[in-house]
Amino acid sequence: QDIADVGHKYHLELVLEDVLAKDSTVNCTAEVLYHLGHQPSAPEVQVTLQGELRNTAEADNVFYNRVKSLDQELVAENIPDSQGTVPPALEPLHLLAWVASGYLIWQNSTESTKLQLAQVKRVQQVRRSDEYLEFDYLVLLHEMVSQEIIPWQMRVLWHPQHGVQVTEDRHQPQHRLQ
């Protein structure tokens, strides 16, 4: 729908599939408004779920307690690897990157882009004195229209009871991938 002097609004009906339990789905409707203008801005999104998503509290707490109990900061690279494999121990880091990169995608999407997380190139835990976990990620976003691979750094705060927050993000130059 074209809204004069405002932008373009899309009405969507989706079926969300649980990434861990493929047989679990939830119907969803969404309205997405892309604003007109010379200054890029994130689209406005309103979502309605018809049902409930699976509760991940138990798995979240297991991961949280495992990382909190480590003697050294957690570091990992190339998730998934070149064969597309995500080791089970790294799956929570990959899922956290997937959720956090959703913020990057939302903030940087336009009507003519289609971004998705391709790979976690590197992740390193940042030690904190409070109850949050903090990770410094370098992710590769795949822009499906242009086929460009875009490196992006993001700093992510997470706590199982408080959710995910991207506190910093910046586009990285291509030469940083080597």
From TrEMBL:
Is Repeat a UniProt keyword of this protein? yes
UniProt keyword Repeat present: yes
Instruction: List the PROSITE patterns hit by this protein, alphabetically.
Output: CYSTATIN_LXN
Report the protein name in the record.
LXN protein
Q: Where is the Cystatin LXN-type domain?
A: 1-58, 75-178
The alphabetical list of record keywords is: Protease inhibitor, Repeat
**Domain of life the protein comes from:** Eukaryota
Extract one GO cellular component term from the record: extracellular space
Q: Show the Pfam families listed in the entry.
A: LXN
Read off the Gene3D superfamilies from this record: 3.10.450.10
The record's similarity note reads: Belongs to the protease inhibitor I47 (latexin) family.
Recorded hits in InterPro entries, A to Z, give: CYSTATIN_LXN, Cystatin_sf, Latexin
Any one GO molecular-function label of the UniProt entry: metalloendopeptidase inhibitor activity
